[in-house]
């Protein structure tokens, strides 16, 4: 990660490697370490911003492919947090999934940012 994303590697990768040096055997070690597809009890919606500087759409597709049943919803927004760049389309996806138990179509795409990233509105006179 440090080679491909040097600006965010210290934040997202290096601190997680600290415990890799611990000499402790895991109690609940998974039997299958192939990291193939994971069968879940419920449906999963993977949500990803297309302009995310730290997590690519390809990575989100990979996550969605590992969990069955799951779909990928793309948000046409920049930033690292899809919920922070919410729009009416995403609100519809959230409502449909969490309230009506309706799974969106795989590859469903939302756009038209309703709220600015992280809720901070930059004034036009700035």
From TrEMBL:
InterPro entries: Pept_S33_TAP-like_C (IPR013595). Pfam families: Abhydrolase_4. This is Peptidase S33 tripeptidyl aminopeptidase-like C-terminal domain-containing protein. Residues 16-110 form the Peptidase S33 tripeptidyl aminopeptidase-like C-terminal domain. The lineage of its organism: Eukaryota, Fungi, Dikarya, Ascomycota, Pezizomycotina.
């Amino acid at each position: 990660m440090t080679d491909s994303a040097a600006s965010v590697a210290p934040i997202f990768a290096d601190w997680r490697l600290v415990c890799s040096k611990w000499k402790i055997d895991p109690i609940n070690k998974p039997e299958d370490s192939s990291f193939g597809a994971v069968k879940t009890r419920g449906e999963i919606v993977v949500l990803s911003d297309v302009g995310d500087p730290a997590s690519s759409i390809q990575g989100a597709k990979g996550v969605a492919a590992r969990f069955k049943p799951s779909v990928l919803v793309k948000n046409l927004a920049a930033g690292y947090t899809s919920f922070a760049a919410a729009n009416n389309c995403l609100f519809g996806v959230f409502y449909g999934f969490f309230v009506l138990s309706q799974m969106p179509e795989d590859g469903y795409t939302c756009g038209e940012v309703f709220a600015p990233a992280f809720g901070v509105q930059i004034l036009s006179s700035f």
